[in-house]
Each structure stands twice: as structure tokens, then as C-alpha cells.
Amino acid sequence: MFRWEENTGFYLLLLIPVVILIYYLAIKNKTYRRGKFIDESLYKRLTNFNVNEWAAVLLLAAAIFFIGLAVANPQSGLHRERQKVEKSDIMIALDISNSMNARDISPSRLEKAKRLITEFIKSRQGDQIGLIFFAGEAYLQMPLTSDLAAAELFAKSANTNMAGTQGTVIAEAIQLAMQSVKEDHQRALIILSDGEDHDADAINMASKAADAGWSIFTVGVGTPEGGFIPVQDEGRETYKTDDEGNPIRTAINEDLLKSIASKATGDYYRLSDNERGIIRDMNTKLERIQKYAVDVKSYSAFESYYQYLLFPALMLVILGFFYDFKSKTV
Fold this sequence. Notes:
By secondary structure, the chain is an alpha/beta fold. The protein has 2 domains: about 1-80 and about 300-330, no CATH class; about 85-225 and about 255-295, Rossmann fold (3-Layer(aba) Sandwich), CATH 3.40.50. The protein is built from 10 helices and 15 strands. The longest helix is centred in the last third of the chain and has 23 residues, at about 305-330. The mean pLDDT is about 85.
């Protein structure tokens, strides 16, 4: 396999026409100035094509060409081989209902959950990650991908305004995860929610997922004491109220989240200030999920050839200075 390691080296090639143009204008200007002080016959001889001057500029242009290629560094793979890489498929379902704006944990439930997700994604190099957002309905935000940088970007973009309808349909999120991964191997689903589920089918769906080879881990976001749900009212922040005008306090439903995890051979965690501990323990538990192997074509090493381009570039520079000096002595 052949490749260029640094494509930025090719930008140096743009200097070649610039150098030639500058040199041409300099020669024309010098010849014009000389023509003012010598007789007409000698002036005509000076305005003829000057071999030494043009040889110098063309040699310099050629040197720039070889230097640009050297900076780009041509490389070739020594040999190609097939490697088996083991990976896991992990879906992450994030609750984006309005209750996730509560600030019983700082800076808010949703922001805390997003931070955990991005740090978790960073810890899963080599795996495939998919994202599901849910509130009153669930939708696939990003299918399984090995592009973890993109997964982080999508996770950071989550906000409660993306929810078409309000609610917390965990059962639908589980079902969507099952539909999104067709391969027949063990998979994992991580649900981050405050557990305010208005759908009683979540536990039954977790059992179905377990039968299909899924392990479900749940992360409770919030506190048992709960917090008020901030809303914007004509540019002023207030709190969501019930029909009688009283602020609604939303508390975490840990019993539901624990039941979902236990039904699907997973574990439950409460998200507070122990993000690293949760990620570390979750990664340990995920090791018990059977990975699957995929074939990857790779080149074991690359050999660089830039040095073979630098030598002719140096020779051309030396020759260029020689012809430039010679032209000045004529």
C-alpha cells in the first residue's frame, strides 16, 4: 500500500509558479534599468534570453518540488495482514424529558448524564456505540458506529427541546435498541434516566431483552429528595407547576431502574459525584459480555522515503546558486 503521510507538503508546490513569476519580473526590471544607460545594440543583447538566470530559477523551482514531496513523505506498507479484532456493541439510551432539567444534582440531571456518557464513550475504544434519545417517544439518534468522536458529539448535543412529546417511555427505548442491533451476539444497553416512567411495560420489555441476549445497565439520575423542574416563562425562569399552581417536585424512581437492571442481568448505579467509579465498575461488568471478532485488513508497518527526495532537492539548490552566481558574473 502506498500513501502520503502529510498532505500539507503539497501546499509547498504552490510556491513554484510564484517563484518563477517573481524571478521573471525581477529579470525584466533589471534589464529595463540597464537599458537606460547603455547603447541600443548592447541593450538588445541583454534583453535576449539569459540561460544562466533562467537555469537558476528553474533549478530552484525543481528543488521546491522535491522538498514538497519530501515533506509529504511518501510511504509504502511493508506487508498486509488480516487481524481479528474483538469488540462489543453498546447502545446508550438517554432520557431527555423535561424532568431531566431538574438541578437536584449539579449542574442539572441532563448535563450530568451527558458528561458521564462522553467519558464512558472515551473509555470504550474499539467498540461500537449507538445512541437513543427518549421522552414521550424514543428515537434512534445515532446507529452503532466505531466513530466514537461522532458519538461524543451527538451525546453532547442532547437537550430537552429535542423531545417531540413529554413522558419517559423506557420500554420503547429498550425495544428500539433491540430493533437497531440485528447481529446474533451478546449486547449491552445503558439507560440513563430519572425513572419517571409512565409506561408499566418497561420491566416486561427488559425481560424480553434479556431473553434476546441483552444486558441492561441503568443509571439513576437525580436524588430521592428530588428537585423542581425549571421552565422559561417570557424570558424569566420559573418552575413547572401542577393544576393548583404548586411547583412540581420530581424525584428519582430507583425501584423501577433497579428492577429493569435485575431483569436483564445488569446492574444499577446512582449518578452523583462518582462518575469515574461508575465507569470503572461498568467497564468491569461489561467484560463478562461476550465480544465478537471481526476481520480487519491492516499494514503492519510503513517505510518512509522522504530522504530520497531531500538529496536531489539539495543538489538542485546548490546548482541553482551556481548558475545564479554565474549569471551575475557575465
